[in-house]
Each structure stands twice: as C-alpha cells, then as structure tokens.
Design brief:
Layout (H helix, E strand, L loop, with lengths): L10 E3 L6 E3 L17 H7 L3 E11 L7 E10 L5 E12 L4 E10 L3
Antiparallel strand pairs: 1-2, 3-6, 4-5
C-alpha cells in the first residue's frame, strides 16, 4: 500500500483549475475534480471535522440607483491581525433590481 506522508498545511496547485489547495486533498474544493482515488476509509477522513465558520448573505442594487459593479474579496489574517492572504473571488455587475448571494464556509480537517 502506497501511503504518502504529507506535511500539515503544505499546498499545491490543482492540475484542473490551478487553484492553490491543500496537498492532502483528494478532491479540489474549487473545481471539485478528483485528484486521486482512495479507499473509502481514507476519503471519509477527508470530510471536514468541523465547520469553523459559515456566513451567507445577499446583496442587491436598488431599482432607482442605476447599474453598479461589485467585487467579492476574502482576507485571511493571523492572530496578530497580519494579512496572510487576500483574494478576489469574483467581480461582476448588477443591473437595477438584480441580486446576488454569497456563501463563505471555512472547513477544518484533521490530517
């Protein structure tokens, strides 16, 4: 049995979508493509042990405001408030009366 040991927190690039993902991931969380196939017991171990944060929200453009643009930005900071990562997740335009929904989930895994 080929069992690799991966350092906790080590990252790699998804070969399908080029997103930065955890090296231990068997499925890319961005594009959901399988990166390797494992026995069921190993796949179950990859399921999140804890959902540390889940935020859902909606935003819209008022009908009398005219068209508008938006950017969805996620910033990750350490305990001291230092910025570790900043990513623009999506951008777009809203016509008057349009609405968008955003869901953010932080999942914790046990390596």
């Amino acid at each position: 049995m080929d069992r690799r040991t991966v350092a906790v927190g080590r990252t790699r690039s998804c070969p399908h979508c080029r997103a930065t993902i955890l090296e231990s991931a068997a499925v890319c969380p961005a594009c959901r493509h399988h990166l390797r196939f494992e026995r069921r017991s190993n796949r179950q171990a990859e399921q999140p042990g804890q959902v540390a944060l889940k935020v859902s929200g909606r935003f819209s453009r008022q009908t009398d405001a005219g068209p508008g643009e938006y950017s969805v930005v996620v910033v990750v900071r350490d305990a001291k408030g230092n910025e570790i990562a900043r990513k623009v997740i999506g951008v777009g335009a809203l016509a008057p009366g349009d609405e968008r929904a955003v869901d953010l989930t932080v999942e914790m895994f046990t390596p």
